[in-house]
Design brief:
Elements lengths: L2 H14 L3 E2 L24 H5 L8 E9 L20 E9 L5 H15 L7 E6 L3 H11 L6 E4 L1 H4 E3 L4 E12 L20 E14 L5 E14 H8 L12 H11 L7 H17 L1
Parallel strand pairs: 1-2, 4-5
Antiparallel strand pairs: 2-3, 3-9, 4-7, 6-7, 7-8, 8-9
Helix pairs in contact: 3-4, 7-8
GO molecular function, one term: aminoacyl-tRNA deacylase activity
Keywords: Aminoacyl-tRNA synthetase, ATP-binding, Ligase, Nucleotide-binding, Protein biosynthesis, RNA-binding, tRNA-binding
Cofactor: Zn(2+)
């Protein structure tokens, strides 16, 4: 399944679930002085979450182009050195504005990953905010995930915000076990480890609050949903490769660059990092 096919399957799935398909917004946000670049799929819906803007739909899905090269979400220094970090990538997301909430989004995500993409249910692990018993119980009792595959984590891991201020809330992340041969090299079995064995696929944000400049959380007018799943990352899983750079979305750029430079990819790690950086930056500038 190509990256293009995955992108289309995602949008088609949510359109069939009565979501309006919304075009990706500009990489340079309009009328938002808090951001230099669009860094998440929810940016264009910020005022909708806050109740300032009214749209003629309560469900939406997008494939949002984003750049993370500064500010709160900054992956610039990791590009080329890891299998999954980029400055530019595409964010698949579905949104609910006062419509469905935790139960709805969890069921949609599970159906898409396991039935549409056909991922192995036994390889999927879940994390939730440690105070969020509701999400924990939905995963355990309704989806049927074993309690041993659900982690309760703190604010750093499972409470999402797009910046220092604005809409935010607890979240639940879906991870996939890529196997003991991937990761930190010590047969890691800890989903909280920062190695690549347990790869985060999809972040389901339960948008409940507006954080002001003093850090105070104010309940939003209507609890809403904001999700994000990197297209390059899910493409790597579906295409059974261990690096986003080896997907059909990026590898051809690397091969073309290597050809121009008269070298071969995966011959020299130092050169490979450079080739990955060039591919990433070429996509970002384009």
């Amino acid at each position: 399944m190509t990256g293009k096919e995955i992108r289309q399957k995602f949008l088609d799935f949510f359109e069939q679930k009565d979501h309006t398909i919304v075009k990706s917004s500009s990489l340079v946000p309009e009328n938002d002085p808090t951001l230099l670049f669009t860094n998440a799929g929810m940016n264009q819906f910020k005022d909708t979450f806050l109740g300032v803007e009214k749209r003629n739909y309560s469900r939406a899905a997008t494939c949002q182009k984003v750049v993370r090269a500064g500010g709160k979400h900054n992956d610039l220094e990791n590009v080329g050195r890891t299998a999954r970090h980029h400055t530019f990538f595409e964010m698949l997301g579905n949104f609910s504005f006062g419509d469905y909430f935790k139960r709805g989004v969890i069921n949609y995500a599970w159906e898409f990953l396991t039935e549409v993409l056909g991922l192995d249910k036994e390889k999927l692990y879940i994390s939730v905010f440690h105070e969020d018993d509701e999400a924990f119980n939905i995963w355990k009792n309704e989806i049927g995930i074993s309690e041993t595959r659900i982690s309760k984590l703190g604010e750093k891991e499972n409470f999402w915000s797009m910046g220092d201020t604005g809409p935010c809330g607890p979240c639940s992340e879906i991870h996939i076990d890529q196997g003991p041969e991937i990761g930190c090299g010590r047969s890691c079995c800890d989903p909280e480890c920062d190695c690549d064995r347990f790869l985060e696929l999809w972040n389901l944000v339960f948008m409940q609050y507006d954080r002001d400049a003093e850090g105070t959380l104010h309940p939003l007018p209507k609890p809403s949903i904001d999700t994000g799943m990197g297209l390059e990352r899910i493409a790597a899983v579906v295409q059974n490769v261990t690096s986003n750079f080896d997907t059909d979305l990026i590898r051809p750029i690397i091969e073309e660059t290597a050809s121009i430079a008269g070298i071969r990819y995966k011959d020299n790690e130092k050169l490979d990092i450079s080739l990955r950086v060039i591919a990433d930056h070429a996509r970002a500038t384009t």
